[in-house]
Each structure stands twice: as structure tokens, then as C-alpha cells.
Amino acid sequence: xxxxLLKKVLTISFMIIMFGSFALSAIYTYKLRKEGKEPVENExxxxxxxxxxxxxxxxxxxFVYGDTLYLYTTHDEDELVNDFYTMNDWRCFSxxxxxxxxxHGVIFSLDDIGWADSRAxxxxxxxxxxxxxxxxxxxxxxxxxxxxxxxxxxxxxxxKDLGHPLVDEGDWNDIDxxxxxxxxxxxxxxxxxPELRYxxxxxxxxxxDKEVGVVKIPMTEEAFAKGSHDTGTSYGEGPWxxxxxxxxxxxxxxxxxxxxNEHLAYSTSTSPTxxxxxxxxxxxxxxxVFTNHPGICDFKGxxxxxxxxxxxxxxxxxxxxxxxxxxxxxxxxSINPIPKCDGVEKIK
Length: 348
Ligand code: FUB
What we know:
- By secondary structure, the chain is mostly beta strands.
- It contains two helices and 22 strands.
- Strand 16 and strand 17 form a beta hairpin.
């Protein structure tokens, strides 16, 4: 008898709970739809660093086009050749909300560049007149580094090689291109390690003004602070050039005096060609690997710094992983050091 009663109580309680949760869910759905929204099941609200977890990636280059952020990266192969950076292709990932990422796979590779044989290093993409350009440092078959250009009708490629280097000075300085089109339509391609140099790109984006030639930026302490790289300043490599509120920014990987690993630093100028004024450290050497590499963009009202660390399992000097942190500018345009972080929140 007592058992029967217990069964009845349990059944009724279960029905009340089921009905209650059904009613609550129906009320929630009704409320959302009244606000013109659709309910989302298991909505992901945060994306943990590293952004890409199934392969090693480095040298992040964000590019905002329409309502999408495209992220170009290099790819550190699992198996090393000669115990050195082993990098054969460039990857693309995209997101509309910073937490859901689509993998577009290999969008350009050494196999597409007949005159190059290794070192598919730090790229950057841009759009002009409906075409997409991916500027990439590579090692030439006949020795030395040079800057290649991939051209495509889509941000996700496939990219087709220009057929010859865009910048090839015959030295090892020609790496890490960063491209920017100013408000007056003039495009600039900065690059270099250990010196920062630039060319003025022509409207077609695949040739540059040969009369101006390759301009060498004076490597002074006022511009890049005292440091331990070859020029005696902190400027190392990986420049990232952009403009915000009439101030030009050069963010780069830097070598502090007596320090082993790269940190990120920035300089600013009121002109696209300098003179540059040292701004400060952007991210300390907390990534745990020798290199770091900045990529900065504004996306849907938020500012992001992309960087790389050794944070994936098995991470090392040659096995890096791309991460992202949200940050804010101070009113005078300066930027406080940005700590390495756990990830970013979903945005609309
Ligand atoms: O990833 C290869 C090279 O290491 C890049 O070109 C540099 O910026 C550094 O990250």
C-alpha cells in the first residue's frame, strides 16, 4: 500500500517537473520571438585560446571584410626538417562572432610558387577593386628571402602566384610584409628584419613605385627604443601597419635589452612614412616561445590583438599557436600592455 502511494507521489512530481520545464521553455521562446529573436540551443558564448586547436599555427593576420573577420595564419608542420621552422602553406579561418570559427584549409602554398622552395612565413591580406592580395615571405630556390603575392577573387582563395617576387633586394631582410591603403588611396607595404623598410605600391597592388624604390626607415632609439637586435634598437620583425583616428601605428615583435624572447611593442606617427615615435610595450614575453607576431583589427566595435604562443600541447619554438585578446585604446591613442588571456567573448 505504502509503495503504491510512493509511486503515485513520484509520478505526479515527475509530471509536475516535466510540465513546469516545458512551460518555462515555451514562455522563454515566446518572449524571445516577441523581441524578434530565435532561441539558440547550447549557445557558445566564449572561445578559449588558442583559437585553432587541431594544427600548429603562427603569425596571425586578421582581415575584416563585410561582416566577417578572416584570419590568415602560417602553419608549423608537426614534423621538422633540419630542426628548423618547417612551414609549407598558409591557412585561413573566419568568424562572424569571435567564437564560431570556420576552417577554410590551405589557401596558398609553396607548391603554388614555382620560384620558392621553403619558409612559407608571415603573410597579410588586403582587398582592392574586388581582388584579394596575399603578401607572403618565402625562401627563393636560388637563395635569400623575397616577398611573393597571391591573387584571388575570394578572401578564402585559392590564391594564384604573381609569378615572380614583388620585393627582392637580394638580402635576407625581405620578410613579414604588412600592407595598408591610406585614405588618399596610396598603398604601402612595410616589411623587414632587422630593418624596417617600405615600398609605395601602385594601384594594381602587384608593382611598386620604382622611382621611390625601397625606403629604409631610420632605425633610431626615438623610433623603436634601445634594444638588443642588430640595429641596436628593439625593432625585430613582424611589423603590423594601420591607422586609427588619424594616428599611424607600427606594431612589431621586439627584442628588449638583455632579453631572449620577443615581446610586442608599438610606435606611432602622424604620417604614413614616419618619423616614428616609440610608444611602449604591447605584450611582454609571456608567450613562452622565442617569437611573437602581432595582428591588429577592429571588428564590430571591438579591438583585437592576435598573437602567438606555445600554448597547445606539444608547443615549442617551432610549434606555435595563434591566440587573441580584446583591448581598448586610451583617449590619447596610446595602448596599455595587453596581457595574454584565456580567450574572447561572443560578439554580435
Ligand atoms: O613564422 C616564421 C617567422 O617567425 C615569421 O616570419 C616571423 O615574424 C616569426 O614569427
